[in-house]
Design brief:
Blueprint (H helix, E strand, L loop, with lengths): L39 E7 L14 H4 L4 H17 L2 E10 L9 H10 L8 H5 L6 H6 L2 E3 L2 E4 L1 H4 L4 E3 L2
Parallel strand pairs: 1-2
Antiparallel strand pairs: 3-4, 4-5
């Protein structure tokens, strides 16, 4: 599931080991019946965010950010996360990804979600990166690790900033 606009192609879902992937963009209050119920192994949220992690590539974007934009995005993120929680089956995961470097959109949002949904917990970043195999060490070195996930910053990577909660 991708929240916000469907910016990602479904071709990424054709990776080895992915046998049943479905990209959905829920809109409005109702969750489409095709994805209702706690049946997903993984819900991937490409969260609506302020995009502060893209400012290196798009420096003019900071001047286009309107007053109150952060508050609107924080509310959107809470809604998307809470809707995703209802879609994940027991033992499943939510991957919450932003292109922001702001703590309120990242670590603070993850902590608040876990407080609202104690049936979820954060997987340690060291455990998360092991899925990358031989690239794990290189990836871990490029991130800032916290109890809430992995933060990639433009300063550390020379690329955009992201949060990948583990």
């Amino acid at each position: 599931m991708t929240s916000g606009s469907s910016r990602r192609s479904t071709s990424g879902c054709r990776a080895p080991g992915v046998h049943n992937a479905d990209v959905r963009t829920p809109k409005g209050e109702a969750t489409p019946s095709a994805i209702s119920g706690a049946s997903a192994d993984l819900v991937l949220i490409d969260a609506p965010c302020t995009g502060t992690g893209t400012w290196r590539r798009n420096p003019d974007a900071k001047w286009r950010m309107r007053p109150g934009a952060l508050e609107v995005r924080l509310k959107d993120q809470v809604e998307v996360l809470d809707r995703a929680a209802a879609l994940v089956k027991p033992g499943g995961r939510i991957a919450y990804i932003t292109c922001s470097v702001l703590p309120p959109e990242n670590s603070e949002q993850v902590r608040a979600f876990v407080a609202r949904h104690p049936e979820f917990s954060v997987v340690s970043p060291s455990q998360t990166v092991t899925a990358l195999g031989e690239k794990a060490e290189e990836f871990a070195a490029a991130t800032l690790q916290s109890p809430e996930g992995l933060l990639m910053t433009p300063r550390r990577t020379g690329r955009m900033g992201f949060l990948y909660p583990s």
